[in-house]
Amino acid sequence: MASVEEGPLPYNLWEGEKSSSSNSNPTDAVIFAGISMLIGVSCRTLLRRTSVPYTVVLLIIGTALGSLEFGSNYPLGKLGNGIRIWADIDADLLLAVFLPILIFEGAFSMEVHQIKKCMAQMLLLAGPGVLISTVLIGAAVKLAFPYDWNWKTSLLLGAILSATDPVAVVALLKDLGASKKLSTIVEGESMMNDGAAIVVYQLFYRMVLGKSSGWVAVLEYLAEGSLGAVIIGLVFGMASLFWLRFVYNDTLIDFSLALTVSYIAYYTAQEQAEASGILTLVALGMVFAMSKDTHRAGGKQSLHEFWEMIAYIANTLIFILSGVIIAQSIFSIGNFDDNAGRSWGYIFLLYIILQVSRAIVVFVFYPALRYFGYGLNWKEATVVIWSGLRGAVGLALSLSVKGASGDPKYLSAETGAMFVFLTGGSVLLTLIINGSTAQLLLSLFGMDALSKSEENMVNYAKHQLLRKAEEFSRICSGSNNPFDWITVGGYATCIKDVCEDTVWPPCTTNNRYLDIDDMKTMRVCFLKATREAYWSTFNEGGITESIISVLMESVDEAIDLATQGLDDWKYISTRLKFPGYCKFFTNVCPPRLTRWFVLKKLQDSCHICSAFIHAHRIARQLLLDYTGDNGNAAIVIAESEAEELEARKFLESVKNSMPEILHQAESRQVTFSMLKCLDECLNDMEKEGILTEKVVLHIHDLLQNDLEKLSRSPPSVRIPKLGDVISIHPLFLNLSPAIRSDLERSSKVILKTPGCTLYTKGSNPTSVWLIGNGSVTSKRSPFPIHCPVDSTYPRGSILGLYEALVGKPYLCDMVTNSVALCVKIKLESIISLLAHGNGEEELLWKECTIAVAKLLAPDMFKKFSMQEVRGIVDERSVMNTFSSQEIIETSHHSINFLLSGCLRDQTTEQLIECPAILPCSILNESVPSARANVMGESAGSYSKYKVVKEARIVRVDNISV
C-alpha cells in the first residue's frame, strides 16, 4: 500500500526458519496452491448439500496445516516449504493479488436497483460507523489490555478491526442464501466500510510512524482517500464501458477487459494516488453492474460463470492462506509473551469487544436504518450485527504493521507480532463462531422459511411434475420392453409427498392451478414473467441495451411497490418524458445535435412501449395459465390492461406527431428478423453437410458484420425536408416556384421537444411558424370565453401569421405539446408576399382565419380535423372589407370573424376590436344554431354594427354541418 513505510519486508515470524526456508525451491509454492485447490474442491463436494459455511471449513483446514508445519515436529516436506513461502508473502502483494478479483466480483454481482435503495444505510454503517467502531475498539484496547500502547497504536488496531471483511461476508452470505435485501446491505456495507477503514488505518499508521498532522490535513487526507478512490473507480469504469461499445458479441474481450481494469484501477488508487483501492474496486464493480443487463442470455451466463469461477479460486486460496498465517502467529507469540494463555484470554476479550462495538454502532443508527431504503427490523439488525466477520483484509493490514515493526521508538517487534496474533485470533473466532451459527440465527428468526404463497408455489410445481411423470408413464407403458415401475418411481422422491398413494405411476390430482392469496405475491409473479418476456425480446434483438436497462429497472421498482399496485408503467412513463434541460439545450445546441438527440429519444421510447405491451400480453396469458379463474389474478390482469392502454396512447401520440419514428422501428425489426432468418438457414445448410466449414465461417462472418452494422447504425429516421414541408402545404402550393424558393431561403427547420415555447403573448412578431409534424397548443388566451380556451394546432398549421398581417403583438403563448418539426419563416418574407398583388394577400388572410377560428371558438372546431377546418374555410367562407362609418349586419345563422379593424355594436354600443367573433353571444353556446335571446339580446336574426375603423370580416356558413 502506498502508506506503508520502508521496513524489513518480507518479514518472518519464525526466527529459526531462515535456514529451512533458504533450502526450499520457489516452485514449491505451486504445491501449496495445488493442494489448496484440491482441498477446496473436496470441501465443496462434501459440503454442497449441508448448511456448513464453506469458508469456515477452509479457514480451519488452513489453520490445521499451519499448525502441523509451524507447531509440530513433523514438517510437511515440500508442502511445508510451499506453506512457508506463502506465509511469508508481502502484505501488499497479498491484497493486490486477491482483492481486485474478490471485491470486483462482489460489487459486480450485486443488484444496482437494490444498491440505490440501500445506499443510505450502507453509507451510514461504512462512514460514521467505522469511525465510531475505531474509537470504541481503540479505547477498549487502551484501557483493558496490559500492553502499554499509546492512543495512536491502540486506535491503529481499532482501525484494523473496525470494519467487517467483504471477502468473508460475501462468501458467507452466498453460502447461507440470505434474502437479497439483507445481503445487499451487509455486502455493500462490508465493502465500503473496509475501504473506509483502510483509509483510517493509513492515517493512524502514519501517525504511529511519527507523521502527525493537523486536523485540517487529517480531514483532507480522509476526503482524498475516500472520494478520490470513488472517482478513480468511476473514471476507469466509464472508460471501460466506452471501450466495450466498440465490441460486438465478443465475451472474451468483456471478460479480459474487466479483469485487467480491476487490477490496473486498484494499483492506480492504492499505490499511485494513495487512495483506497477497495473503494475504487467497489465503484468500478458497480459501474460494470449497471451494464450487466445489456448482455445477451449466453453472454450474461458466461460472464456470471467466469467471475464465479475465479472468485471461487481466490476465496479458496485466501481462506486457507489466512488459516496458515493465523497458525503461524499463534505459535510465534511465545517468542514475545511468556504467558501465551493470557494472550488467548485477551483474544476472547477482544472478540467480545468487537461484538459489543458492532452492536453499539447498529443501535446508534437503528432509527435511520429503519427509515432509509427498504427499512430494517430488529431481526434483520441482529443479523447485521452477527455478520460482522473479520477476514483476510484485516489480517493483511496487521501483516503490514508487523512488516514495518522493529523500531522501539515507534513500533516494536513485540507490538507487530501482537497485532498479527490479535487480528488472526479475531478472524478465527468471528468466522468460526459467527460464521457457523449465522444459519442457526436465520432459522431462529424464521428468515429462511417459506411463506404461505411460496409453499403454494412449491405444491403447484410438484403437481406439475407429477402430471409430467404421469404423461411419461402412459407413453412408456405401451412399450414392449418390461419396466419395473416401482424401481423407476422410487428415484422420483421429489414428487413422493404430492399424494398419499405410493404406487407408481402416481395418482392424479385435482389441483391444476397455482393458488396465491397474497396480492403482492401475485403481482411479483406477474412482474417476473414480464421480466422474462423482456429478456426474450432482448435476446431476439427486438430491443437494445439502453432499452433493456430501463425495462429491468421498471420491474425492480414495481416489485418494491407491489403492495400498492402494478406500477411498472409509472416508472416507464417518467423515462419517456424529455428532461427539463432539453428546452435549454434545443435553443443553444447545433440543430443536427438537437435533431439526433430528439429522434433517438423518441425511437427508444417507442421501442420501450412496444416491448412493454408485448411483455404484458405474454405475462397475462401465463398468469391465466398458471392461476386459472382466480380473483386476484383478474385484478392484476385488469391493472395490466389499464397500463397497456396508457402505452398505446403514447404510441398513438407519436404516430400523430412523428409517424416516421414508427416506420423506422418497424424497418429495424424487419431487418433484424430477416438477418436472423438467414443465419438459421445457414445453420440448416451446415447441418445438412452441403457446405464446407470454410464456406460456413466465411458467410457467418458476413452475417455477423451485417448484424453488427444494424446494431451500430440502425435505419435512420427520414424526417421531411424544408422544401417538402413548404411545397406540400396548401397555402404555398398555389405560389409560384420563384416565391417558394425565396421562402425556403429565408426559412429553417427546427425540431422542438415537448414544452418548448415558440413565442409568448405580448411579444412583437419576428417570424411565422409552420408546423410540419407534431402539434402546438395555445396558452394564456386573453378572451373571456366560458369554455376551455386552449386550442391544439396540428400538422399543417401556420402560427403567428395573423399577428404579422395586422401588426399586433402575439395574442397568446404557443407551446409544443409533443415533438414538433417546425419551419421558422422570417417575417420579412411573409410581408413581401403582400407586395406581389396576385391574390397572395387573400390566401394569407384565409389562412389566418383557420388559426383565429380555433383560437376564438375552440369548442366549435375541436371536432374537426385540420383538413376539415381548411375545407370549411375554403368552401363555406366569404371575405369582405368594409369602410369606416359603414353599417353592416351579421346573420345569427353564420359565424363572422373580425380579422382587422374595429366595430361598434348598434344595440349595446359596445366597442369590438379585432380579432373577434360576431355575434359575440355565440361564444356562450356550443352549437351556433340557436342563439336568439342570449345575454339579453333581442329576438331577431341579425345584429347591426357600425364600422369604426376599416374592417375585414370572414363569414362562415353552416359550421355545424
From TrEMBL:
GO terms for cellular component: chloroplast envelope; plasma membrane. One of its GO terms (biological process) is regulation of intracellular pH. Its main location: membrane. It is found in: Membrane. The chain crosses the membrane at residues 29-47, 54-73, 93-110, 122-141, 225-244, 275-291, 312-334, 346-369, 381-399, 419-442. It comes from the Eukaryota. GO terms for molecular function: potassium:proton antiporter activity; sodium:proton antiporter activity. It is a multi-pass membrane protein. SUPFAM superfamilies: cAMP-binding domain-like (SSF51206). InterPro entries: Cation/H_exchanger_CPA1, Cation/H_exchanger_TM, cNMP-bd_dom, cNMP-bd_dom_sf, RmlC-like_jellyroll. It catalyses: K(+)(in) + H(+)(out) = K(+)(out) + H(+)(in); Na(+)(in) + H(+)(out) = Na(+)(out) + H(+)(in). Keywords: Ion transport, Membrane, Potassium, Potassium transport, Sodium, Sodium transport, Transmembrane, Transmembrane helix, Transport. Residues 731-834 form the Cyclic nucleotide-binding domain. PANTHER family: SODIUM/HYDROGEN EXCHANGER, SODIUM_HYDROGEN EXCHANGER 8-LIKE. This is Sodium/hydrogen exchanger 8-like. It comes from Nicotiana sylvestris. The gene is LOC104235789.
